[in-house]
Every structure is written in C-alpha cells, then in structure tokens.
Amino acid sequence: MLMTWLFHLILHNRHPQKNAMLWSKLFTGIVFRQSVQRTYFIFRIFSDHANQSGRSAHS
Fold first, then answer.
1. I need a labelling partner for 37 at 20 to 30 A (CA). Which of 5, 26, 28, 59 fits?
2. pTM for the structure as a whole
3. How far is CA 10 from the centre of its chain?
4. How far apart are CA 4 and CA 11, in angstroms?
5. What is the rounded CA–CA span in Å between residue 22 and residue 17?
6. Cα–Cα dist 52/1, whole Å
C-alpha cells in the first residue's frame, strides 16, 4: 500500500532532483532498518548461546 503510494508520488513528481533524493532516502531507510535488524538478530543469537554455555558450565 505504502510502496504503491510512494511509487505514484515519485512517478508523478516532475522534479528529477527531488526524485533522486526521495529514492535515496527510501533506499537508505530500508537498508539501514534491515542492517539494524540483522545486527540485532546476530547479537541475540550470540547472547543466547553465551547464556546457554554459561548455564551448562555451572550445572
């Protein structure tokens, strides 16, 4: 829904510079969010692993 709206907005916008800015902002936002999610996911896996190995060492 949001993507089609953005697509129409960019398509009907007659300013190429503004278009490029919009696209780069959109792209940067998506990439940034994905990298943050991936980093968080990896961090969670490592912390879970550390917690499990710590528990097994204690018992």
1. 5
2. 0.47
3. 21
4. 10
5. 9
6. 42
What's 3-59 look like in SS3? HHHHHHHHHHCCCHHHHHHHHHHHHHHHHHHHHHHHHHHHHHHHHHHHHHHHHHHHC
For residue range 7-54, what is the model confidence (pLDDT) as tens digits? 777 677 677 777 788 888 989 999 999 999 999 999 999 999 888 887
What is the distance between the alpha carbons of residues 12 and 20, in angstroms, rounded to a whole number? Answer: 13
37: which 2 tokens?
């999610």
User: In the structure encoding, which two tokens stand for residue 25, read together?
Assistant: 């902002």
